[in-house]
Amino acid sequence: MSYVMHMRTSHIVASLLRKTACVSVPTQSRLLQRFIGTAPRVQTGWAAKSPISVSRRSASSVTPHSTASDPAEAEALRCLEQGTAKLEEGDVQAAKSLYQRSTEIKRSASSLFNLGVTHYHLKEFDEAIEAWKESIQYQPSSPDTHTNLASAYIISPVSRPDLALHHLEIASSLSPEDPEIAFNHAAVLEATGRLEEALEKYKLSQQFGVERAGVHIRNVSAKILGKRLKEEEKHDKAE
Fold first, then answer.
1. Percent of the chain's residues with pLDDT above 90
2. pTM of the full predicted structure?
3. Is 41 helix (H, G, I), strand (E, B) or coil?
4. Residue 16 domain-assigned?
5. Is residue 10 part of a domain?
6. For residue range 34-61, what is the model confidence (pLDDT) as tens digits?
7. CA atoms within 13 A on the CB side of 51
8. Is residue 173 part of a domain?
9. Which stretches are TPR repeats (predicted)?
């Protein structure tokens, strides 16, 4: 794994009260403890297919048409690679400038993706979201971009769990056996009160190797049982 963790290698937790409402800061910070990976992944080269890795992994994919014969494209690629080197050194501002330069010369899924990474690390969440949304226009089949967007929507000052859930659903459909996506999807489902669906996703993430999903499986199972008991009690009182 490289220096840049995709939004999938730290931890985020879910405690959102309403599906489309803005969450409070304390609730939001709890949610951020449960996600696996809350920092973005980085790409090198022009993305033609899903990145090899994200969240602190480096992704690399090159189109068959990427050659140095086009001076502008070669310069954009050089800026992209230099930006990634700076990012791995920890110089996020320098990386951001180089990624911006790359996008000015030739916009691509990778340059926009990595520009979003730098915005995210600088807590410029609106800008990160815009960069990743544009990256998706060039590469709609990237589960990593959708996952990172979900993390940005969760960590933003005005949190949008509804939009996070939307992008996690897409990421899950694109990469159904990715344990990190399944776990993060479960966390947001749990946070929005969709407990049965969350339980399924936690079980899936455990099946694919996320050991700590077991704790959440027990917790969600207890919540479901408690909810059913309350409903039964309410029904009995009504009679």
1. 67
2. 0.75
3. coil
4. no
5. no
6. 566 555 667 655 443 332 223 333 333 3
7. 33
8. yes
9. 109-142
